[in-house]
Write a structure and sequence with these properties.
Belongs to the DegT/DnrJ/EryC1 family. The protein has 13 helices and 13 strands. It is of the alpha/beta class and 395 residues long. It binds pyridoxal-5'-phosphate.
Length: 395
């Protein structure tokens, strides 16, 4: 950062970027290669063996009776929604401020997203925000955990019981987490997870469902193996090589969490030097993965989020908007219940994901924070240059 004297020294205005190699917000954790090979080797001659081993390990890990693996989180969710939705009803109550493909999953099953607001503190669906969307056509409540901390598991569980509705959790971002009620993985009718390379537990690709319901577990396995003819039944099995990768990463999970914690602590120590930005804190009173680093741009942050992210991206700091656009305001090619969600609209303008994961060093974090500081100090000049650039003037 030292060589930067003024706004014109930013990559957005033509200077060389701060990082030669992009610093991303994805995890991309790699296990010790030999450990992966050992698991892969044992799968020779016993097809499905490593995958079953992974399912056993994951059901123990999550304190759930059953684990059914899938080729992706997407198909784990689709099969679970098909299996759990109340027959004859069409609507799935779900948040709008969430993972960009969540509505696609629901639409794929032939059901209709009914988007609800999120709680301003947890940034997640809650019993309060879900209740007002429940009606005679509600087939399922889809509780999605946010990317920092957990949604209100207890409240949603009580709501689902009261209204006699099935409750499915998307727990992709809460693999390691515990909440007041216990370890994530044993709540609702089922919980869905992903083993994509960008997630906490990297299996290259993959997903799984945990549940304490034996009948549901066997129905999901039959659907996953393409042994039934219901909607969503297709060969969605997890390959043994993927299971080997996930097992190796599961063995090393605690070490990964320790590294995530170091990175998070570095952000937490450095960010308060920058006015107008707030780090979303992990709830350290229960188990947490420290995986994602999310900041809020407060009212006194001097630039728009879009311009801020453009500046960071030009420096190869791959910060991303969290989440934008929210699902209810995205053009969609399938039916959904139109919703007016002012809180979601407002929250969708305020947050950004910062670089994290195993390819981001503590020094990188210092550099990113220094860049944010530089942006704050030079905000007026940056705004002027950006306006000039937008007007097509040469600078
Ligand atoms: C990534 C993700 C999924 C989908 O998982 P894939 O394995 O990529 O299909 C579902 N839900 C959330 C919250 C996610 O972040």
């Amino acid at each position: 950062m030292n060589r930067r004297q003024s706004a014109a020294d930013l990559a957005l205005f033509g200077a060389a970027p701060l990082f030669a190699v992009p610093r991303s917000t994805s995890n991309l954790v790699q296990p010790e290669f030999e450990r992966f090979l050992d698991y892969a080797r044992t799968s020779f001659g016993q097809p499905g063996g490593t995958t079953r081993h992974l399912e056993e390990r994951l059901s123990m890990f999550h304190h759930a009776d059953y684990c059914v693996s899938f080729c992706s989180g997407f198909w784990a969710l689709a099969a679970s929604i098909v299996a759990l939705a109340r027959p004859g009803r069409r609507e799935v109550v779900m948040p709008s401020l969430t993972y960009r493909r969540m509505a696609d999953v629901v639409a794929w099953t032939g059901l209709v997203p009914h988007f609800c607001e999120v709680d301003a503190t947890t940034l997640a669906i809650s019993a309060t925000t879900a209740t007002i969307c429940i009606n005679d056509d509600t087939a399922l409540i889809l509780g999605v955990h946010p990317i920092v901390n957990c949604c209100d598991v207890q409240g949603l569980t009580e709501l689902a019981a009261q209204r006699e509705l099935p409750l499915l959790f998307d727990s992709v971002e809460s693999v390691y987490e515990s909440c007041d009620a216990g370890k994530i993985g044993g709540f609702g009718n089922a919980e869905c997870f992903s083993l994509h390379a960008s997630k906490l537990l990297n299996g290259f690709e993959g997903g799984y469902v945990t549940t304490n319901d034996a009948a549901l577990a066997s129905r999901l396995a039959a659907s996953r193996d393409g042994r039934t003819l219901e909607r969503g039944a297709l060969d969605a099995r997890l390959a043994d090589t993927h299971a080997a990768m996930a097992l190796a990463n599961l063995d090393e999970l605690d070490a990964q969490i320790a590294r995530n914690r170091e990175r998070y602590k570095r952000y937490r120590a450095a960010l308060p030097t920058v006015p107008g930005i707030r780090l979303l804190n992990f709830d350290e009173s229960s188990r947490t993965s420290y995986k994602n680093v999310v900041v809020e741009l407060l009212d006194d942050w001097p630039l728009s989020r879009a311009l801020t992210i453009d500046i960071l991206n030009a420096e190869r700091v791959l910060a991303r908007a969290y989440y934008s656009p929210p699902l209810h305001s995205k053009p969609m090619a399938y039916p959904y219940i139109p919703a007016d969600l002012p809180h979601t609209d407002e929250l969708a303008t305020r947050f950004a994901l910062m670089p994290c994961g195993d390819f981001v060093s503590l020094d990188d974090i210092d550099t990113v924070v220094a860049l944010l500081h530089f942006i704050h100090v030079n905000a007026d000049e940056i705004r002027d240059l950006a306006a000039l650039a937008a007007a097509g003037a040469s600078i």
